[in-house]
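Continuing from the previous page...

OK, I double-checked the sequence for phosphoenolpyruvate--protein phosphotransferase against my notes and this is the correct one:
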Amino acid sequence: MSSQRIELLAPLTGLIVPIESVPDPVFAQKMVGDGVAIDPTSNVLAAPTGGKVKQLHSSHHAITLLTPEGLEVLLHIGLDTVMLKGEGFKALVREGEEVRTGQPLIEFDAELIMKRGKSILTEMVVTNGDKVSAYLPGNGFARVGLTPALTLELVGGAPSAAASVAEGQLSDAVKVPNPTGLHARPAAVLANAAKTYKSDIKLVRGGDDANAKSVVSIMGLEVKHNDEIKIKATGPDAQAAIKALTELIRSGCGEDCGPGVPAGKPKTVIKPVVKPHSDDPDVLVGVSASPGLAVGQIFQVKQDVIEVREQGDNAEVERRRLDDALKEAKQQLEALKSEIEDPGKAEIFSAHQELLADPDLLDIAISGVSEGKSAGFAWRKAFTTYADKLAKLQNEVLAGRANDIRDVGRRVLRLLAGVKEAELVVPDNAILIAEELTPSDTASLDRTKVLGFATTGGGATSHVAILARSLNIPAICGIEDAVLQLPNGVPVILDGTRGTLRKNPSEAEVQQIRDKQATLARKRAEEQATAHQPAITRDGTRVEVVANIGGLDEAKQGVTLGGEGVGLLRSEFLYLERTDAPTEEEQTQIYSDIAKALGTTRTLVIRTLDVGGDKPLPYLPMPAEENPFLGVRGIRLCLAAPEILRTQLRAILRAAPLSKLHIMFPMIASLEEVREAKAIVAEEKAALGVTADVKVGIMVEVPSTAVMSEIFAREVDFFSIGTNDLTQYTLAMDRGHPKLAKQADALHPGVLRLIAMTVKGAHAHGKWVGVCGGIASDPLAVPVLLGIGVDELSVSVPAIPSIKALVRKLNKSDCVKLANEVLQLGTAAEVRARLASLAD
Ligand code: PEP
Ligand code: MG
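Thanks. Re-ran it with the corrected sequence; updated C-alpha cells here:
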C-alpha cells in the first residue's frame, strides 16, 4: 500500500459487484457514496480495515467505521433490510469500539433475510468522498479479510498529516457572545460559512454536538449566551475551517446586537412556563406581539391535515419528486419575498429557502426515501422531527423557529401531496384566532378584511410577531387556550399593545376605541398631508428632517414621505453577507441610483464603510479582538485597509454630480484620522478629475471628538452625531447589552452635554450639526435637540412625517429654555420625567 492508497478488504466472502449494478438507485447513483457491493456467500460481516465504530444502525443492518485516515466507510447488509427492524442481525461490536482489520462486526441470518423477500447484496461505500480522488474496485470472487475489494486513492494526504485529520481537530473553547445565543440568524451565518469547507465540521458543547453545516442541527443544540463551544473539523481543510469559524463565533456570527432591539427588553427570552391568565372572565391575556387596537369579530383558523402515503413507488422516483417539490417551494418563496416591502422582513423567507437545503433535514428525508417511504412521508418525518425538537427547547427564540420549520415543511408537503393551499375565506372585520399562524399565512393576510390576530402559540420574538409589526397589524401571541373555544362572529376588542382580548365589549367601550382610532388616523393623515412642507418651528427656525437609510428602496420611500434628503446612508449593506468585496462599478451603480432617486436638490450623506470588530467581513480577515467595540472598526479599519476605502471613495465621487453629495467618516476619534481620510479623498478626486463640490464631514460617536468639536470644526464641513455609539462610549455601556438597555440612555445628561458641546464648537466655525442616532426619531427628545441647536434630524423613514409635524408645533425659544433646564439635571430618569410631563 502506498502512502496515498488505502485498501479495503472484502467484508464478506462472495462475488464483487460494481456499485452501479446494485438494484437500488440510492446506491447505484452513489447518493450515499461511492464503493462496491458484494453478493455474499458468508454471513459474518468483517471489518475491511481497522478503525473505530462510528455508528451502528439501531436495526444492526448497517455500520459505519471511521478509519485512521478520516474516511467513513459504510457497510450496509442487504437492500431494504432496515424494514426487518433488527430481526436476523446480531451486532458483535459497539459504537465507539476500536476494531482491527478482519474483526467480525455483524452476524446475519441470510436465509431469514431472503425469506422475508429482501436481497442480501451488501454495499461498502465511503460516505465522505471529498477525501478520495479515485475508487478502484476489485472484481471476481473475494475472500473475507483477504481479498482487496476496493482500493482508494486519497486526495494529497501524507499519512502523518492524515492521522490528525482522522481524529478530527478540535479548537479551543470559544464563548458565544450573542445575547440570544445561536438563534436562527447567527446559526444560518455559521452554517453557510461552514458549508464553504470540505471538512466534516461539528459544534461541540460538552458531550453534545451538532452538524455545523445544518441550521436546524445548530439550533437544536440550544447554544446560549456565554456557552463555551468548540469546533471539531475532520478533513482536508480542517485547520482553516477551525480558524475561520472560531473567529466567526467569537465575533457574533455577523449579528448586530445593537440597534433594533426594543429598549428595556431582555434579548434572551426564556419560554414562560405558565401562561398569563386574567381574572376578568371577559378578558383573555397573552403577550404583545404587535401594537395597536382593533375592534372586530372572531374568526377561527384551523390548519388542514395534509395526507400522504407511507410507501413510496421506488426510491429513484420518490427522490425526484422530493427534489422537484423543494425546487418549486424555493420559487414560491422567492415570489413571496418580492411581495414584502421591508427587505429585513423578506429575509425571514430567505431563511426558509435555506431550510430547504439544510443537510440534516435532507439527510432524514433522503434516508426515509431510501428505506422505501414516499417522498411526502419521509419529508414530513424530517421536518416534524426537527420542529418538535426545537419546540421543546427552553429558549423562546429557538422554540419559535419550530413554527418556521413547520411552515416551510408544510409548503413542500402540500406540493408533494398535490394539494393547494386552502384559501382562507375571511369575513370583514375579522380577528383571526389560531393555535399557530405561520410566517407565510401572516405575510399573505388580506389586510382589507383582517384587523388583527391572536395565537395560543408563539411569542413576541417569533417571526410571525415580527411580520405583524412590519405589516402594522395588531397581534397577540401566547394567549390563553380558552380563545380557541370562542365561536366565530363573537365581537371582541384586541389590544395588541397590552396583549389583551376583550370579549363582548359594551357599546361604550367599542365607541371609545373607535374614537381613539379615529383620532390617531386623523393625526397620521394630517402628518402625511403636510409631510412635504418644510419643518419650521412656530418662531421661524427651519430644521432639516432627513432619512437614515440602508438602500435604494428606503431612499425612494423617504422621498415619498417628505424626507428632505438622506442624513445617513449606512453603506455596510453593500459589504456584508457576501464573500468578496463589492466592486467599484457595483458601488457606483447603487450610489448613483440612490442619488438619482433624491435628485440634485436633496442632500445625500454617504457614510463610508463602518464595519470591523462586531461586524466582520469574510473577505477581510482580522485577528479576533478581546474588545471588538474598542478595536479596529469604522474609519480605523478603512485606514488599515486603504484599498477598500479608496474603491468606495471613487465610487462615491463618480456619483457626485447626481445629487448634493456628502462623504461622512464613521467612528472618528482623532484629528490624524480626519486628515488621513481627507487626503485620500483629495487624491482620488484629483485622479478622477471630479470637480463637484463634495462636502466631507464626520460622525461624532466618540467623546473625544465631541469634546474637541471646535478643533475638528476647523477641518471638516459638517458633523452628524451618532448617539447610539456616543452613548455607548460615554457611559461605557455596551449598546447591545440586554441588561443595560435601560441605563444606556441617550437622554443621559452626560450625553446631552456632549451634544451641546459639539453644536457649540461647530457653530463657532459656521458648520452644521445633524443627529442621526436613534434619539432623533424619538418625539420626546426632539424639543431638547432643537433647544441645543441641532440643525438637522436624520430619522428612520416611517418617522419622517410625524417628526416634521412635531417640529412645526414647537417654539425654538421654548426649546432653548427646556434644553438649558434639562442640561442641569442629574440623571436620565429625571430628563425623561421632565420631557414626559410636557408631552402629556
Ligand atoms: C450611531 O452610532 O448612532 C449611528 C447612527 O451609527 P450606527 O447605529 O450605524 O452605529
Ligand atoms: Mg455608530
